[in-house]
Amino acid sequence: MRTNSQTPGPWSRAILRRALKASLATSHHETGMPYASLVTIATMPDGAPLTLISTLAEHTKNILANPRASLLLDETGGLGDPLEGARVSVCGTMEKVDIPSARARFLNRHPSAARYADFDDFDFYTLKIEGAHFVGGFGRISDLTANDLTTDTSDAAQLMAAEAEIVAHMNADHAGAVALYATKLLGAPAGDWRFVSCDPEGCDLVAGETGLRLDFPHRVKTSQEARITLAELAKTARS
Questions:
Q1: Which residues of 131-164 are buried (b: 16+ CB within 10 A; e: fewer)?
Q2: Terminus of the chain with fewer CB atoms < 10 Å: N or C?
Q3: Strand (E) or helix (H) holding 12
Q4: How many other CB atoms sit within 10 Å of the CB of residue 236?
Q5: pLDDT of 21-55, one tens digit each?
Q6: Would the pLDDT of 2 be above 80?
Q7: Separation of alpha carbons 150 and 126, rounded Å
């Protein structure tokens, strides 16, 4: 059971949700030349990329001088010809974000970052998406809008307020179900799968260096609806 559509918009959203790292392109603060670097990422509830960067890093100096940036996310690893793989370039404006949910979402996905996340020179930034360019292999190319990539969370405030509780509950009390989501519904190998985040359209799982996206069969707006939906998915996985 793979729930991610292979049309450009949903496919690109899935790539964003699954990604653990990306190439960040900025304009050098002194020369104006293009500057590319590697960053680890998570996503905000609406799907906007989220990263943790230091003011000592060259890319952060670039962002402070000119916040316009682009992120390249790709799923070409292991392919004999990487150009046959899917990738999406997302462009927009980098903005500093200082809310507990952003910190929790990032550290759920990258727990080792807790060692330095509270250092004075580190801050969380999100990319306010303005558009994207998707390539799904030869001949599969599409320009996308921000609406193609983001999830509306305006009617799901109760769900997002309960996200931390849902994540903790799933990992503490339903680790077996989380593993089944990964292996039975998404076809992933067995591993130490963790439930790291959820939103109205689905949930995200991580094991080691691999991220997965499990779409919900219908939109979820409350923690009760999430509980019922996750239980139904576990039942499907067991059958």
A1: bbbbbbeeeeebebebebbbbebeebeebbebbe
A2: C
A3: helix 8-18
A4: 14
A5: 999 999 999 999 999 999 999 999 999 999 999 99
A6: no
A7: 13
- Do 100 and 200 sit in the same domain of this protein? no
Cα 20 from Cα 167, distance rounded (Å):
18
C-alpha 239/C-alpha 202 separation (Å) is: 20
Q: Does residue 140 form part of some domain?
A: yes
Both tokens of 166, joined, read: 């849902």
pLDDT in tens, 144-192: 999 999 999 999 999 999 999 999 999 999 999 999 999 999 999 999 9
Task: Compute CA distances 40 → 43, 68, 130, 208, 228, whole Å.
Answer: 11, 18, 20, 13, 32
Domain residue limits at 189: 157-238
Count other Cβ atoms within 10 Å, centred on residue 5: 12
Q: What is residue 50's three-state secondary structure?
A: strand
- What pLDDT digit, counting tens, does each position of 71-107 carry? 999 998 877 788 888 999 999 999 999 999 999 999 9
